[in-house]
Automatic annotation (TrEMBL):
GO biological process: division septum assembly; FtsZ-dependent cytokinesis; septin ring assembly
Presence of the UniProt keyword Magnesium in the record: no
UniProt key word Signal: no
Compartment annotation: Cytoplasm
Organism taxonomic ancestry: Bacteria, Pseudomonadati, Pseudomonadota, Gammaproteobacteria, Candidatus Competibacteraceae
Protein family per UniProt: Belongs to the ZapA family. Type 1 subfamily.
Task of the protein: Activator of cell division through the inhibition of FtsZ GTPase activity, therefore promoting FtsZ assembly into bundles of protofilaments necessary for the formation of the division Z ring. It is recruited early at mid-cell but it is not essential for cell division.
The protein, known as: Cell division protein ZapA
Domain of life: Bacteria
Keywords in alphabetical order: Cell cycle, Cell division, Coiled coil, Cytoplasm, Septation
Length: 105
């Protein structure tokens, strides 16, 4: 069942932004806004004082995109490693089971 969108406001680097969202998404979006606000403030506080809000937002978006892509790469590598380990274990199980199989006379 579709719920009516909620109107909500968030603070990002001292500026208020309003948007609508589904009630079920509210908490996750607030968490995302808090994280983005933290990243934008870090950029501003570490030499970005001369940048406008748009430039800080673009830099934060680029940094977060880089973080996401790096995380996806790490997950892909970990997934591949786990698949290889599972395959190796299955081969060992198959080998052990074939040793225990009685032969008929």
């Amino acid at each position: 069942m579709n719920q009516e969108p909620l109107s909500m406001a968030v603070q990002l680097a001292g500026c208020e932004y309003r948007f609508a969202c589904q009630p079920s998404e509210r908490e996750e979006l607030l968490d995302a806004a808090r994280y983005l606000d933290l990243k934008m403030r870090e950029i501003r506080d570490h030499g970005g004082n001369t940048l406008n809000a748009q430039a800080i937002a673009v830099m934060a978006a680029l940094n977060l995109s880089h973080e996401l892509l790096r995380q996806q790469c790490q997950w892909t590598e970990a997934e591949s490693l786990v698949k290889n380990q599972v395959r190796d274990l299955l081969q060992k199980v198959d080998a052990a089971l074939s040793l225990d199989t009685p032969t008929s006379v």
